[in-house]
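anyone seen this seq b4? input:
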Amino acid sequence: MSTIIDTFIAPPCHDQIETLYQDEHLLLINKPAGLLSLSGKNPLNLDSVHHRLVQTYPGCTLVHRLDFGTSGLMVIARNKAINAALCQQFSQRSVTKIYSALLCGHLDEDEGMIDAPIAKDPALFPLMSICAIHGKPARSGYRVIERFYRELENGALLPLTRVELTPETGRTHQLRIHCQQLGHPILGCDLYGGLLLPGTEQTSRLMLHASELHFVHPISGEKIEARHASPF
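predicted toks r here
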């Protein structure tokens, strides 16, 4: 059994968390890119969504997480009962999550489904891997919004595809590794090939944003359809 050693130190994040909605039960926030969802074991990785919010909302807890490099919508529970009710919606897959992303290259198909099981591999940490034998089921839908070229400083043209991604499951790094599997990694993704194409190495961030979150308010029973436009 190999021991996982996490050497990652997050650079300081100066962007603020944007609170989009709040009541006595929950918060809806826009997480900036470059902020951990939860504080790490290393004391240098104390700053996080949870660490910041708990100063203002004691007792608040995370229902789900976004990767360090991903921005966008998160729902935060303000007490344990709300957390349990929301976690149940996530585990029953009744929550709809839609992401905006920029992928390297031009996709051939306008839409499709990536069905590839994902496994943890301590030897490759922090990378996940596609593994039919040990992997947990993972499915992600994609839909092309536009194909375009971005002009680089040297005048070269970088082909990119803007897509909408809809994960049916919630595995770690799921969208990032599934897009790599598709042959079109997410632009700016350091772990799964999104900095390999010429002209991508200077990309400022992971081009992945949680743009929609649909769930039922645990107390009012109201259907919440939160949207936050992609910043890229």
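The CA atoms of residues 185 and 193 lie 6 Å apart. The chain has a mean pLDDT of 95. kinda curious what u guys think
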